[in-house]
Amino acid sequence: MPSIGEEAVERIRRDHGHMLHLIDRIRSECTERGKISNCNECHPTRQGVCHGNIEQMFRSFVETTLKHNLIESMFMEDRVPAAHRMAHNQAHMDIAQQLKAIRLVFSEDGNCVVAIEGIDHIHKVLLEHLKEYDQQLEAYLLEAALAQQP
Ligand SMILES: [Fe+2]
Ligand SMILES: [Fe+2]
């Protein structure tokens, strides 16, 4: 049977896969990338469909990411050194701020081209976050799992 730590790591990895998949889907929704700088330049019928899809997927990406970060914070309680937990939680708050900023782009002018640029940026931030924080968290969780074994 997998230990709690192993289950936690599995959950974290599954979430990451899901989040990165959503980013891919959002990016591939816009077929005019690099050709136009504003959704207004796109064909109106295309614009409506694409905008709705991107906004919906983005909303689900934000929800998934915020929930995922909360779950990681929960896993960190009592199981990782305080210094890591504090820095990691701070990094999660920074990500939440950036997601909020992209969401604002949607509500202000609905320009998905700009929103997708923001998503490109979040993608980079997430990959760095995985390397800088989540890998370390996984190591702590697995270490704790090992220590629990009789
Ligand atoms: Fe994290
Ligand atoms: Fe994570």
Q: Helical content, roughly?
A: over 70%
- Give the strand content: under 5%
User: Can you count the beta strands?
Assistant: 0
**Biggest sheet overview:** none
Weakly predicted, low-confidence segments = none
Q: Roughly how many Å is the radius of gyration? A: 18 Å
Tell the overall outline.
elongated
Ligand kinds: fe (ii) ion
Structural class: mainly alpha
Number of helices: 4
Q: What is the domain tally?
A: 1
The end-to-end span amounts to 13 Å
Report the average pLDDT across residues.
Answer: 91
- Listing every helix as H and every strand as E from the N terminus to the C terminus, the arrangement reads HHHH
List the helices and strands and how they pair.
Blueprint: H1 4-29, H2 44-76, H3 82-108, H4 112-148
The chain binds fe (ii) ion (2 copies).
Keywords:
150 residues; binds fe (ii) ion; 0% strand; mainly alpha
Question: What do these coordinates show?
Answer:
The chain has helices at residues 4-29, 44-76, 82-108, 112-148. With 150 residues, the protein is mostly helical. It has one domain (4-148). One fe (ii) ion is lined by residues 69, 72, 88, 92, 129, 133-134. The site of one fe (ii) ion (FE2) has 5 residues, from helix 1 and helix 2.
